[in-house]
Amino acid sequence: MGASSLVPDIYAEGTITPTNPNSSSASVVLKSKGTDRVRSEINLPDGQQVYVLNNGRGFSLISGQRKYLPAHSTLYSRPEHLNAFACGIDLARANISVSYVSLETLRTATVHHLRFLAASSDPLEQLISEFHVYLDTKTLRVVKTANWVFAPDAIENRSLWETYYDNYQSVGGVLFPMHIQHFLAGTQLDDWNFTNVRTDVPISLSDFN
Question: Would you say the pTM of this structure is higher than 0.85?
Answer without folding.
Answer: yes
